[in-house]
């Protein structure tokens, strides 16, 4: 007779293997990101020169706390709440969730991404579970997770490259 431990172990293995099968394929144009990260001078992405107003607004939210469901500086932000707030400040209406923002955005080829465009990632089982605002030079700003704050991250990081599913423009 097969023990319960063996059955649960087998079920767990099947679950893990089946979960891996439905991961999105990395877009071909992301391969260019796998180069070794080059140092990025701070003035390349912290200067207001040639910086769209939308990006300046996003940067002004740096340091605000993450809060699930949050969409205002006074309460904190989740990833889609940050996008929702920043775009609303510039008179643009976007849906409230990352998945709806992905559906709403016009797809943009990786080599055509501009500051202010949205980057979409798969961090959980749903197809789109995270969104960020692109700044240029492979950098983006986002509200990462509970216990963290709105911050910068880089598309040069393996973590983000492996989870990147596309870019879009509003």
Total beta strand runs:
8
Question: In order across it, which strands form the biggest sheet?
Answer: 3-8-4-5-6-7
- Proportion of residues in extended strands: 15-25%
The class by helix and strand makeup works out as: alpha+beta
Number of helices: 6
End-to-end separation in angstroms reads 59 Å
Overall mean pLDDT: 77
Helix content: 25-40%
Q: Biggest β-sheet: count, sense, barrel?
A: 6 strands, antiparallel
Categorize the overall geometry. globular
Show unreliable segments: 1-49
Can you describe this structure?
The relative contact order is 0.18. The strands form two sheets. A six-stranded antiparallel β-sheet has the order 3-8-4-5-6-7. A two-stranded antiparallel sheet has the order 1-2. The chain is α+β, with helices and mostly antiparallel strands. It is globular and about 35 Å long. A hairpin with a 3-residue loop joins strand 1 (71-72) and strand 2. 31% of the residues lie in helices and 19% in strands. The longest helix is centred in the first third of the chain and has 18 residues, at 4-21.
